[in-house]
Amino acid sequence: MVTASEMPPLTSTVGLKCRSCGAPLPADPTGEILRCEHCGTAQRVVDARAFVDQIALQINSFLRQALPMGAVGAAGGGAIDPVARHNLFVQGVRPRLDTEFREMRFRCFNLLSHGQMALPFTVTSWLTSPEDPKGAFLFQEKVRSVRSLAVDEESQGYLSEIEAIATAYAYLLTNAGFLSQVQPERYPFVARNCREASQALQNTPKLKALELRLSGLSFLAEALDQLSQGNPQKAREPLRSALPPLTQAREIAFQNFDQSVMIGGIDEDIAIAKASLVLTDVLTPSGGGDAGRSLQTTEVLLRTLNSPLPGGEVNTATLSAARLETLLTLAAQMRKAQSGQGAVRVLNGPGEIFVAFWVVEVPYSFSTGALWKARGVEVSETMLVASTFPLARPGQGPLDPSSVVTDVFAARGPSSWRDRVAGRETAISGGGIVRQVVAGSASLPLPGLPCVPPLSTQDEASRLVQEYLTWSRQRDAEIDQKLKLSLPRVVDLVYLSCVPGRPGSPPVPFLGPLSPRTLGDPGALHALAFT
Ligand SMILES: [Zn+2]
From the CA of 261, how far away is ligand 1's center (Å)? Predict the structure, then answer.
C-alpha cells in the first residue's frame, strides 16, 4: 500500500493556470509576464505558479476525502493492481464527483437556456453576476487527478464526459463575464473560448447539439469582432459559417430531451446572428458617406436599443435578441433606401431630418344622441406615432403618450348641443390631415436628409396607442362616456421630414396643430441620424 507521504508531487501534473479565470496558460512561458488568451488578464509567471500550488492543495484535499488513508498516491499513478484501483474509484471517487457534477451540469444547462452572445456595444440583459469559471476548471483538474483509477471503459467514458462538460462550462462562464459588460476587444476572446469549448465536446456524441452551437457561436463572435471595428465586408464570411451549425444545433436539440432546454437560448443566438447580418447593411456607408461616421451612429443606435424603454415596461422580453433583430432589420431597410438600393414610404417636405412614424388605424365606435335618437357610430381614425418615442421621456418620469402621437381626440371638431342630442355627430376625434399625409406618401429611395431609424417595434407602437386611449378618457369626461372599445392596428411605417427642437415650431411642420409635441430629445435624434 502506498502511503500519503509517498504521494507524487501533483504540482508537476497541473500545468500553469490563469489566476483570474483558471484557464490553462501557455506551457513554456518566455517572459516574466503572461497574458491569458481566454480572459485577457496579464499576470506574473510567479503568481501563476503560486496559483497552481493552491490548486494542487485543493486537489490533494479532494483526494484525501475521496480515498482511504494511504491510498492517495494511487491516484497519482501508484502501482496498485487494477481491481483495487477500480474499487477505489467506484466506492470513493465516483460518488463524490457525481454529486458535484450533477449540480454543475444543472447550472451549465441553465446558463445555456439563454442566449450566449451580445451585439457590439450591448450586454446580455438576463445575466447579472456570472459564476467564477475557476470552480469549473478546478473540477476539471479533479477529474484529471483520478484518471489512473478508471480502469474499465465505462469509468473512462464517464470521466471523459464530465471533464468535457466542465471544460465547456468553464469557457462559457468566462464568456458570460465578457457579455455582461461592454468591453472593447472582447470578441476575439469570446471566439476562442467558444472554439475550445466546442472542441472539448468533440468526443461526446450525446452533446452534439452543444458542440455545434458553440462552433456556430465562435464564427458569430469573429463576425462581431469585425462589425465592432466597422468592417461589415469582413463580417459576411464568418456570418455565413455561423448560421448553419446554429440551425443544426437547434434541430438536434429539438429531438433530444436532455438538450431541449437549450432551444430558447439557441433561438436567441440565431436572432443575434440574423441581427448581425442586417447590421452589415446598417454599417455599410451609403454612397459618399464615410465608414467612421456610420460606425459612430451605429454605436449610438445599438446603445439606445439596449437601454430600457420608458414607462416602466422594462423586462427581458423588451430587450430581447428578437427585438434587436426586428429593429435592426428596419434600420437596414432605411439604409438601403438611403443608398438608392431600396425604398421605404416617404413624405418629403420642409425639414432637416427624416424620422420614422408608425401609421396606426384606430377603429372605434361611440354613442351619440339622446333618448330615441341614441345610436352608435363606427369610425376609423388614422394616427401617427413617433417611432422615436423611447427618447421622449422627460427626465426619468413617465411618458405622456399624447406628446408623441397625433393627438386626434384633442383635435375633435366642435359639435353643437343640437347635433349631440339629435345623434348627428360623425366622430369624436379629428385626425383628417393625418390620413391625407399618409395617402400622400410614396415608396421611394430616401433623398438627401439624415435619417433616424425606428426605435420602437410595431407592438410597442400599438401598446402606446392603447395607453393614449386610456389617457384620453381620463383627460376628457365626454370621450370617456362615449368611446367604445377600440383595437389599434399598426399598418405601416412612414418617414416624414421633421424639424425637431426649433422653439415655437411643431416638430412635424405639415401636420400643423396635430404634430406630436416632441419626437424625443433633439440632440439624441441628431446623434442617431444616419447620413
Ligand atoms: Zn484567464
Answer: 29
| Same domain flag for 236 and 352 | no
pLDDT of residue 246: 97
Residue 423 has pLDDT above 70, yes or no: no
CA of 189 to the centre of ligand 1 (A): 10
Count: domains in the chain: 2
d(CA 47, ligand 1 centre) in Å: 13
Residue 242 CA to ligand 1 centre (angstroms): 25
CA of 18 to the centre of ligand 1 (A): 5
Ligand 1 center to residue 253 CA distance, Å?
30
pTM for the structure as a whole: 0.86
For residue 511, count other CB atoms closer than 10 A to its CB. 20
How much distance in Å is there from the Cα of 185 to the middle of ligand 1?
15
383 and 242 within one domain:
no
How far apart are the CA of 21 and the centre of ligand 1, in A?
4
Distance from the alpha carbon of residue 178 to the mean position of ligand 1, in angstroms: 12
Strand 344-347, strand 33-35: pairing: unpaired
Read off the pLDDT of each residue in 425-440 and give the average, rounded to a whole number.
77
Domain contains 170: no
7-16, 98-107, 347-356, 508-517: which range is least confident on average?
7-16
Q: Which residues contact 514 (CB under 8 A, 6 or more apart)?
A: 406, 407, 408, 411, 431, 433, 434
> Ligand 1 centroid vs 186 CA: distance in angstroms?
13
pLDDT tens digit string along 125-152?
Answer: 666 677 899 999 999 999 999 988 898 9
- Average pLDDT (366-386) is 78
Q: How does residue 319 score in pLDDT terms, banded at 50, 70 and 90?
A: low
DSSP track, 74-129: HHTT----HHHHHHHIIIIIHHHHHHHHHHHHHHHHHHHTS-----TT---TT-SS
Q: Are 496 and 349 in contact (CB under 8 A)?
A: yes
Q: Are residues 376 and 329 in the same domain?
A: no
Distance 57 CA to ligand 1 centre (A): 20
The residue segments making up the domain with residue 202 are 194-307+323-339
Query: How is residue 3 annotated by DSSP?
Result: -
Do both 303 and 354 map to the same domain? Answer: no
